[in-house]
Amino acid sequence: MQAGRWVQPSVLPGFGLTLGFSGAFLAAIVLIPLAALVLKGASLPPSEFWRIATEPRALASYRLTFGASLLAASLNAVFGFVIAWSLVRYSFPGRRVVDAIIDLPFALPTAVSGIALATVFAPQGWIGRWLAPLGIQVAYTWVGIVIALTLIGLPFVVRSVQPALAEVEKSLEDAAESLGAGRWMIFRRVILPTVAPALATGFALALARAIGEYGSVIFIAGNLPMRTEITPLLIVIKLEQFDYLGAAALGLVMLIVSFVMLLTINALQGWRARRTTGRHR
Amino acid sequence: MQPTKHLSKLAVSALLAVLAACGGDSSGAGRLRLLNVSYDPTRELYEDLNAAFTEHWKLSTGQDLDIRQSHAGSGSQARAVIDGLDADVVTLALAYDIDAIHLNSGRLQAAWQSRLPHNSAPYTSTIVFVVRDGNPKGIRDWGDLIKPGVEVITPNPKTSGGARWNYLAAWGYALRLELGDFERLYTGSAEDVERAQKAAAEFVGEIYRRVPVLDRAARASTNTFVQRGIGDVLLAWENEALLALEEVGEGAIDVVLPSVSILAEPTVAVVDTVVDRQGTRAVAEAYLRYLYTPEGQEIVARHHFRPRDPVVAARYADRYPELALFTIDDVFGGWRDAQARHFDDGGMFDRIYSDGAR
């Protein structure tokens, strides 16, 4: 092997230019700020880092942030799939409008979503008014946080699953049916395996978005320490106390956990893709 | 530590350079500029004051002056200045935030607070209660806050300057109740003082256990109480309470003055390194001194802050009724001690939640 052979030759010109640009762009926008965070966090002695990262208040905030995010992403995986299904498989009046509404949480400033949700779900709000007599309080509890995270994560699942669902070949379903498969069987053995990678991507994106979400949550969470305080808020609180190192330590924890979670999901997806293609052969 | 500090400085200055380039507007070379970095509730006050001072400066020096103002939570504004925002003057909610600029960036001299009269606080305010119209829960004094079934709205003292005043006012009330007189903090027996401090911790903890939403800033708490209709009583700056009353009108909320409260002293200062670099020291100092003049004090009083000037204060006596006020120096030994004991990580405030929230 010759030196430089790791570069796959391409018929397209401009490889060096685009790679150089990608590298510089990624470095400036993503890597350098993250490196500053890592360096700042790493300037703490390990024992001190561990103490800050495992304070009871920090631990409570991780539980809430990752727990609520997982729950919200799971809800989105189920209901996002249903919505994508109805948009792809059926045609009904107003379908385009529904399709456009899906993207609204992308465009809306998150603070606006948060304030709107808090207004609607507050004990005097349109929905909260009906829930309050039942003893269900949504705004200013963890339930409100899950709802906010579900709202902002929904488009990720729908938009990931839609094209995959559209790709599912009708002929495969017909074939399965002619071979005697019931509806549930077709769904489980034909449709789901085809859509699964897209669904996993959507889930991962929604999860990642939820973990980092700040703007909408702080309006609907009560922000009480130990109970309804998410980690991003705790980081901001530390910053406002001029505790830069403490904030960097928590930021680093978030960075590491998110990275590991996303890596795991990607690995699972790759494993799954290999397994399903293997079976087809 | 060193390289990261440079890195973040570099990042911030790059960002500011870009912003400056974008904002490079019309201003001619001769035009004088000031940036006043302030906190939330002073927006309307400084809009008026800036107009008046610009005119005053034009008349006395012939120079055109352009004053820009920036408003957000006091703590985050201090952080912005520490991180490199070139404020000529800072007008923040409490001395601690300006101290933080001195301690974390050295952009201010240590003695900043003695350079202007009245501890560098040209106007004051205090902490009062805002209740629903007609005061249905009968909240007249601090003790009523912990009656059964009362929900209290106050922001998080970790992030909000106003919330720290709320917290300390409640603490002071409980101390006085136990000791009878603040003098006893210094003359009473150690056990008495110890017992009183315990009782105060208990009382303040009891208040925070009645707080359903802990907002980040005073303005956010006002919205939670007024717009969302959450809670029975809002602990607020007097200026914020009067502003809310003006906005939503009588018949929706009432303002209640407790028997005793804290003298809140929002402080102002010239940022030394910035004015020296930009050559704006003279105008920046004149700007802050203008706050103390009868004209400045009149504007202050109109915008719901208590003036220092006795003549102006007499004119507004019915709007700002007398009540017993104690200072942070009297009862807590100043901001630095209060911050370290109550609000730093592991302090008294953290203990309320780590002990109680299971």
Explain this structure to me?
The complex is a heterodimer of chains A (about 280) and B (about 350). Chain A is an all-alpha fold. Chain A has a single domain, classed as MetI-like fold (Orthogonal Bundle), CATH 1.10.3720.10. Chain A is built from 13 helices and no strands. Chain A has helices at about 15-40, 45-55, 55-90, 95-100, 105, 110-120, 130, 140-165, 170-180, 185-210, 215-220, 230-240, 245-280. The longest helix of chain A has about 35 residues, at about 245-280. Chain B has about 350 residues and is of the alpha/beta class. Chain B contains 17 helices and 11 strands. In chain B, the strands form 2 sheets. In chain B, strands 4, 5, 6, 7, 8, 10 and 11 form a 7-stranded mixed sheet that branches. Chain B has a 4-stranded mixed sheet with strand order 2-1-3-9. Chain B is globular, with a radius of gyration of 21 Å. The interface of A and B includes residues 36, 57 and 241 of A.
Query: How many β-strands of chain B, per DSSP?
Result: 11
Q: How many separate domains of chain A?
A: 1
The CATH superfamily of chain A is identified as MetI-like
Strand-residue fraction of chain B? 5-15%
How would a textbook summarize the main sheet of chain A?
Answer: none
The number of helices of chain B is 17
- The averaged pLDDT of chain A comes out at 88
Which architecture name of chain A does CATH use? Answer: Orthogonal Bundle
Evaluate the radius of gyration of chain A.
23 Å
Tell me, briefly, the overall form of chain A: globular
Estimate percent helicity of chain A. over 70%
- CATH class assignment of chain A: Mainly Alpha
User: Main sheet of chain B?
Assistant: 7 strands, mixed
